[in-house]
Structure formats: structure tokens, C-alpha cells
């Protein structure tokens, strides 16, 4: 399942030509996000969700006090309103009839930082007021999700750096505009400007400190394009107590090319500047200069999403090769895997045996690694760590097992692909595996390939929605960038066959009206596309005598026969959501899940799973 982001971010050439990211018209930048305030129309949460979806964004989620301050200050100054919908809600998660939970979250699953939540009046928790809005005072109110007010959409538009900043693999830079007289300031003013989020669009930024030589090289290659005259830029470099030092203590001692040895004229040149020619100089801290802000680069590039985070995908399983400082006794290795909802690897097919042998040839993996095989309970009767029996035809023993001195009860695999029994107390690396599809959100979901699918209960009339509401609900089931929820888009022949097999199942035979998919021709009449995925493939859609030229039938449904029909988008129908399987979960371990930002949206007001 691909998610196609219509990011409203453009490249704008600032000053003399360095490209910097800015938000599109109507959107305001703060940090690494773009925000849009809607005050000209008052709508329900469902309608607000749909509006945000159309611009590939989500209802706002607030993650820091600085962000909340910026939102309220901006709203008060530019968008006065009694309140704005946010993504905060306490909608029930497990039942269609359950009242509000009293547990307020962003969307369906993200726990809110309670320290940021100040209620105007304590929430009623009455099963009606399940959605929260924020006002210009920064206080929140719980309201009926069908109530009407303005709203704020939020879009992640970062490249790992705040909006408007230049980036390298390790650093983010803001180079002040040489054409703006207000950005010619003293050293102290420059230092304050960089550390003020409302000015710099960044939290935790500082006046430039040099971390690595690459920073110097990057800046000196860019500075000549910032202005046509000799320009100097303040750095976070000062002279005190007989020595020069950076204001960021962790900055490296990079050798600086000085214009001339710092001469501290009249004992007043105690602040460092970088010239356009890449040379450093000392200047009076009260003089006027441009400046450079700096922030560490935390997230530079998202890996290809295969549903396993940084673990390795093979078929429907995810594998973690845990070595280095994580070598451990067998039982500790087993516990380590459990922390990730995984088990020690189980070799239960010839395909897995061949794949694992190939992985062990990788020099990056340790020479020996624990598997789940053991005979701890009964000597000579080998089982896997999940207690299932071992099929010896998949195990290539290396003249083993021999249970040396009666103390070898755990099985490992070597780089040659052979197995050996070893003392379970031996400190060895390990291989964990997780069934990537066993962790779809609940038994209500159906797993296929690396996707999970949810067919809404069509006999429950309260679960019916129009297509926009259905799309908004499916998006609310997003957890993170690896697990993105969306209304069904059919993207391959295999997925076409799977969906057809599901909807033609006898259990759905009496669903005569069908399920919404994301297919529509709303943008161009007669040109049908799915909302996400690659270029539309008409061979994946089995029309039943359609499409026709009915101008009001702009959305596509799939019926119990596996055929597609046109319907008015306003019809209240069932629908099919899809989402990547959970894959590897978090834990107190060094294997981390790489998160890259795609849209996540608020739970619909009428349907929960």
C-alpha cells in the first residue's frame, strides 16, 4: 500500500539563490510543519477531518509547549475564533456502542502529553462530548464531535530540518537574509534570534557552532550565493578568560582558518564571525552582522518501508540479527526477542533454511547465533522456543549434538550453516523473528501479504458513512509511518484477487449495496483513480456494465460479486480499510523502529474498532 502525499511545499529562491523550503500560500511554517487555520467556516470533526485529508494533512496534534504557544499566539493575532478542532478525543476504541473512555488521545492510539492539556472546564466524560477543541488562550474544551467550529490542519513537511533551513547529513543551518536590514544585528541579538522558536521556526536551535569540518565546507560553499558584497556572519564563538570557545559545549575542536590571527583590537573583539570567503575573524560583539543558526540533524532520510522497521523482511516474517554488545546467554536472548513481541528464530521450512544459511554468510553477522532450538525439558527431544517440535530434516548438524559433559542443551547456527548444541550459558549473538501479520490490530482484521484489511460490519446501520467520512476514518487508524491507514486502493493483481475472494465469501452474500473503495472520478469526470498507490490500472477493476456518464456518481464501490459500480459519494455505505501490518514493535532494545512522517488522522465520531 503506497501513500501518495500531496505536500503543499514549494521551493522558493531566497536572496541570491539558495533554495529553502517554505509552506504554500495559506499555510504557515513552524518547526518542521506547515499549519493552516480555518475560521471562515464552522464544521463538525468529521468534516474537518475530510478537509485536512484533501490536503494530505491531519487535524493538529500538539507535542510541545512551544508548539501550543505558537498556535495560540498565531490564532490570537491572525485568526481570532472561539475555538478550533484538534485531533484530541476520547472516542471508544473497542465497541460501536461504548461511551467515551475518559482516556484522551491524539487520534486512535497516540497518548497525549497530559502536562500540555489545560482544560477550561474539566471534561464531562458523558459519552457525548468526545472531541476536543483549543481556544486562543491555550485551554481545551470537550465538545460533541458533531458540534461546529473552526479547525487547524497540520502537515509534516520536513527534510529532517526545520522549514526554511538548509541541511546536510548531520546538520541544519539557517543563514540570515542579507537583503533584510532587520537581520543585521549584534551578537547577543543573533544568539537570541536563533533560540527563539517563533523567529527561527526551530526548537533547541543555537547560534552556529561548528561540529565537524563538513559544516565549514558546506557553509563556505553556500555563503557566496547569499549576497553580492563582503558579508560577515555571527557564530556562537566567543573569547573569554583567555580562550576561544563555542557556546555549545559539545562542538568539536575543528581547526579554523582565520583571516588573520585574532587580534582583539582595543580588547573589544570578543565574538567570532565567518566571512563569505570561508575565513574566520574576530569582531566587536556590539557591531552589526548577519548570522547563522544551527541545529543538529536528527532525521535525514527514511528507509524503504517494508513493514519491518530496521529489521529484515523475508516473506511475511521480520528478522533481527542481534549481535555486538548484545551477545547473551540463551534465556536472556529469548527474553530480548520477547521484548519485541518476537521469538528466537525457528527453522521450519526448506525455504527458511536456505535463506538463513545465506544470511549467515554476511560478514556483518556474528559467527555463531542462537536459534530457538533446545532440549532443556527432555534430553534429546529438541523443540523450538515456542515449544513446537523440531523437524530434523531442516537441521544440518555439524557432527552434533553430543551434549558435551551433559551441559549442552541449546542450539546455535554457525556462519557455515551448520548447527551445534552448546551450553545455554554461553554468551552468543542471536536471531529473533516475528510474524509480521500475526499482529494486525485485532481479529476483526484480515491479513494478506504485508497488509491488514478491515471490512466494516455492514449490518450495523450506525457504521455507515459517505466516502469522505470513510476515508477519514481509515486514516484515523494510522499509528505511524510504517502503519498507515487508508480507504482501500487496489494496486496489484494479487491484491485484486484477495479482495475479490473476500467480498465473494458467503458471509457477505447479503451485502447487496457493497463497500466504499477510494476510487473516484471527482477530479476529472470519467477519469477514475484510486486515492493512493501507483498509476491507475483499469485491469484491476471489474466494472459491471459501467462506468457510465452519470455526472453525480463519482465514487466507486465493490459489491459481494466482486464487481465495481459508480455511486454518489454522499451515500451512506460500508467500506474497506487497509493498513500495513504492525511489524516490529518497540522495546528496551538497541534495534529501533525508523519512523518517517506520513499522515495520521483523528478517529471518526461514529465507528471504532
Report low-confidence residues grouped into runs of 5 or more.
1-21, 94-98, 299-305, 583-609
Q: Which structural class do the helices and strands define?
A: alpha+beta
The major pleated sheet works out as: 9 strands, mixed
Strand content: 25-35%
User: What is the global morphology?
Assistant: globular
Q: For the terminal residues, how far apart are their CA atoms? A: 21 Å
Which labels suit this protein?
single chain, 609 residues, alpha+beta, Mannose-Binding Protein A, Chain A, 4 domains, nine-stranded mixed beta sheet, eight-stranded mixed beta sheet, 9 helices, 14% helix, globular, disordered C terminus
Fold and architecture overview:
The chain is of the alpha+beta class. The chain has 9 helices and 33 strands. The strands form 5 sheets. Strands 3, 4, 5, 6, 7, 8, 9, 10 and 11 form a 9-stranded mixed β-sheet that branches. Strands 12, 13, 14, 15, 16, 17, 18 and 19 form an 8-stranded mixed β-sheet that branches. Strands 20, 21, 22, 23, 24, 25 and 26 form a 7-stranded mixed β-sheet that branches. It is globular. The two termini are 21 Å apart. This is C-type lectin domain-containing protein. Keywords: Membrane, Signal, Transmembrane, Transmembrane helix. It comes from Dreissena polymorpha.
Amino acid at each position: 500500500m503506497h501513500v501518495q502525499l500531496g505536500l503543499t511545499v514549494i521551493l522558493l529562491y531566497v536572496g541570491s539563490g539558495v533554495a529553502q523550503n517554505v509552506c504554500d500560500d495559506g499555510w504557515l511554517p513552524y518547526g518542521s510543519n506547515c499549519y493552516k487555520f480555518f475560521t471562515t467556516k464552522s464544521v463538525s470533526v468529521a468534516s474537518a477531518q475530510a478537509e485536512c485529508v484533501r490536503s494530505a494533512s491531519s487535524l493538529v496534534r500538539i507535542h510541545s509547549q512551544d508548539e501550543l504557544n505558537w498556535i495560540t499566539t498565531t490564532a490570537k493575532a491572525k485568526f481570532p475564533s472561539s475555538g478550533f478542532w484538534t485531533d484530541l478525543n476520547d472516542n471508544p476504541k473497542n465497541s460501536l456502542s461504548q461511551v467515551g473512555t475518559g482516556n484522551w488521545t491524539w487520534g486512535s492510539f497516540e497518548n497525549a502529553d497530559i502536562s500540555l492539556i489545560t482544560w477550561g472546564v474539566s471534561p464531562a466524560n458523558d459519552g457525548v462530548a468526545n472531541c476536543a477543541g483549543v481556544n486562543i488562550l491555550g485551554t481545551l474544551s470537550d465538545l460533541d464531535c458533531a458540534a461546529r467550529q473552526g479547525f487547524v490542519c497540520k502537515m509534516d513537511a520536513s527534510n529532517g530540518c526545520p522549514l526554511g533551513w538548509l541541511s546536510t547529513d548531520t546538520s541544519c543551518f539557517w543563514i540570515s537574509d542579507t537583503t533584510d536590514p532587520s537581520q543585521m544585528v549584534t551578537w547577543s541579538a543573533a544568539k537570541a534570534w536563533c533560540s527563539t522558536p517563533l523567529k527561527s521556526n526551530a526548537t533547541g536551535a543555537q547560534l552556529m557552532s561548528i561540529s565537524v569540518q563538513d559544516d565549514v565546507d558546506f557553509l563556505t560553499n553556500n555563503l557566496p550565493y547569499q549576497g553580492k558584497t563582503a558579508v560577515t556572519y555571527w557564530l556562537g564563538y566567543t573569547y573569554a578568560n583567555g580562550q576561544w570557545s563555542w557556546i555549545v559545549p559539545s562542538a568539536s575542536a575543528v581547526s579554523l582558518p582565520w583571516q588573520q590571527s585574532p587580534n582583539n583590537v582595543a580588547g573589544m573583539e570578543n565574538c567570532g564571525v565567518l566571512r563569505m570567503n570561508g575565513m574566520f575573524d574576530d569582531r566587536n560583539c556590539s557591531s552589526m552582522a548577519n548570522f547563522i543558526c544551527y541545529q543538529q540533524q536528527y532525521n535525514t532520510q527514511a528507509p524503504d518501508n517494508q513493514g519491518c522497521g530496521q529489521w529484515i523482511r523475508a516473506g511475511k516474517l521480520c528478522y533481527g540479527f542481534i549481535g555486538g554488545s548484545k551477545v547473551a546467554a540463551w534465556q536472556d536472548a529469548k527474553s530480548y526477542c520477547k521484548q519485541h513481541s518476537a521469538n528466537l528464530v525457528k527453522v521450519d521450512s526448506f525455504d527458511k533454511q536456505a535463506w538463513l544459511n545465506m544470511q549467515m554468510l554476511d560478514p556483518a553477522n556474528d559467527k555463531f547465533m542462537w536459534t530457538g532450538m533446545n532440549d532443556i525439558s527432555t534430553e534429546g527431544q529438541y523443540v523450538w522456543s515456542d515449544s513446537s517440535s523440531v523437524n530434523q530434516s531442516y537441521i544440518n548438524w555439524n557432527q552434533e549434538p553430543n551434549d558435551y559433559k551433559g551441559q549442552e542443551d541449546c542450539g546455535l547456527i554457525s556462519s557455515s550453516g551448520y548447527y551445534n548444541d552448546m551450553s545455554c550459558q554461553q554468551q552468543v549473538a542471536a536471531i529473533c523473528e516475528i510474524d509480521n501479520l500475526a499482529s494486525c490490530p485485532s481479529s476483526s482484521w484480515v491479513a494478506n501479504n504485508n497488509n491488514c484489511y478491515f471490512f466494516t460490519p455492514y449490518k450495523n446501520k450506525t457504521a455507515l458513512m459517505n466516502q469522505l467520512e470513510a476515508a477519514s476514518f481509515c486514516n484515523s487508524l494510522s499509528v505511524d509511518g510504517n502503519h498507515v491507514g487508508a480507504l482501500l486502493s487496489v494496486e496489484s493483481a494479487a491484491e485484486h484477487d484477495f479482495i475479490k475472494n473476500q467480498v465473494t465469501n458467503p458471509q457477505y452474500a447479503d451485502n447487496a449495496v457493497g463497500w466504499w473503495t477510494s476510487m473516484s472520478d471527482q477530479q476529472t469526470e470519467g477519469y477514475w483513480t484510486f486515492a493512493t498507490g501507483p498509476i491507475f490500472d483499469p485491469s484491476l477493476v471489474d466494472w459491471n456494465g459501467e462506468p457510465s456518464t452519470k455526472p453525480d456518481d463519482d465514487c466507486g464501490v465493490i459489491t459481494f460479486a466482486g464487481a465495481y459500480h459508480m455511486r454518489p459519494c454522499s451515500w451512506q455505505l460500508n467500506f474497506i480499510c487497509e493498513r500495513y501490518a504492525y511489524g516490529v514493535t518497540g522495546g528496551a532494545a538497541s534495534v529501533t523502529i525508523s519512523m518517517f512522517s506520513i499522515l495520521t488522522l483523528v478517529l471518526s465520531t461514529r465507528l471504532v474498532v
